[in-house]
Amino acid sequence: TQHDPARTTPGSEYVRLDARGRLVELRAEPKKVVPDTGEAKVFDWSVLFRDAGLDMSRFREVRSQWTPPVFADRRTAWEGTMPDHDDIPIRIEAASYDGKPVYFRSVAPWDEEQPESAVASGYADSQLYSGALVGVITFFGGLFLAIRNVRAGRIDQKGALKLGVYSFSVLTIGGLFGSSISLSFFGLAEPLRLIAARSLTVTAVLILLYLAVEPLVRRWWPDLLISWNRMLAGDLRDPIIGRDVLIGGILGFASIGAFFVAGLLRDYIYSKDLTRQSTDAIDAAGSTGSLIDGISGGFVFPLITALGIMTLLLVFYLIFRKKLVGTFALALLWGTYTTLPFYFNRGLVAAGFQFLVTVGIVFLYARYGMVTIAVSILMTFISSLPFTFEPARPYFTESMIILGLTIAIGVYAFYISLGKQKLFEGRGIDELTG
């Protein structure tokens, strides 16, 4: 990936592709020592232009404006248009060292460094500081509540133990698939140490929040835990679990779909093609193992988020003393906070549509509870991954894994949601149509 492992070894590279497998960015660590041959070496950039799906003859050379992230002895740049959109300008920034490429990047208009307005900049700063504040409050508040619940004997010990074993096992297995392990002592010990450290840290945070939040939700809003408790009890064929998983999946895909619908709606109203092209989706250093590692995290981190969301629902309920009013207040606040970036980046129409979708999702969270929340976040993550049906694409295998996983979850949830009832069993045409 871009930062893991760190590119400290000469010759190590980071490659980023677009959704069609075309080169978007290349970064390479240059050699530490280069012999002086007295010759000025020049790299043939047409090679990387072809990898980027660009015709170099349609570009004109200009002065380089971007500083490369690695050392280079030669910088250059070109300007032209996108191959499938002649009306969209594109800039290529490149750098080489000793006649070998160390940097190449395709820069679209939406990638340019744009000066932020004072309001947008202030909002970004507020998000950063408020996020840090929420993290600190969550940790110490969760620690205080967890200790208090343990002393009062209100905790779900069996549930916490099952959750901890599940989290650690899933993250460890995913980490083993996603790590590069060599058959030597140090090559084996260091990755295992990092995997264990990550798994233990995330699991500890998850258990801490569970011990802090679950007893309070169980007391004040137990409906949020109905399907969750049945799942912990091992009753994985319970129809309520199937229902909540199905609804969570629908909400997850809806949240991603709303992003694109909002952009299309904005483009239609303003009669402009403003929808951003996808150029930052795929890390070419990724693999099936990296995908499995990412998905394993997708089966754990949403549980932490779900506990946080239930905490917010509970807090607003206790403040307003009515679940409907508290949920409405949280939906308005959450919708406003999360959709402000859409207003700054995509306009009022997109922000308004996204706001309505967010408010609706919050109400459904309050209605169906923890399982729906966690599955919704999982499906939001899965649906944001690059996907293709074309075997020639470099991420086709990963796409089929994503498709298979999504279908498996959907079929499982739909099947158990039927309970003991079989689909169309004993029903005639008249009954179905009448």
Characterise this structure.
The structure is a single chain. This protein has a seven-stranded antiparallel sheet with strand order 3-4-5-6-2-1-7. The radius of gyration is 26 Å and the shape is globular. With 434 residues, the protein is of the alpha+beta class. The chain has 13 helices and seven strands. Helix content is 59%, strand content 11%. The longest helix is centred in the middle third of the chain and has 36 residues.
Distance between the termini: 57 Å
Shape: globular
Relative helix content: 55-70%
Q: Roughly what is the average pLDDT, rounded to an integer? A: 81
Q: How are the strands of the biggest sheet laid out side by side?
A: 3-4-5-6-2-1-7
Give the structural class: alpha+beta
- β content, as a range? 5-15%
| Cα Rg | 26 Å
Tally of alpha and pi helices: 13
Order of helices and strands: EEHEEEEHHHHHEHHHHHHH
The strand count comes to: 7
Largest sheet: 7 strands, antiparallel
Flag low-confidence runs.
114-120, 271-285, 426-434
Provide a compact summary of the structure:
With 434 residues, the protein is α+β, with helices and mostly antiparallel strands.
List the keywords:
434 residues, alpha+beta, seven-stranded antiparallel β-sheet, 7 strands, globular, disordered C terminus
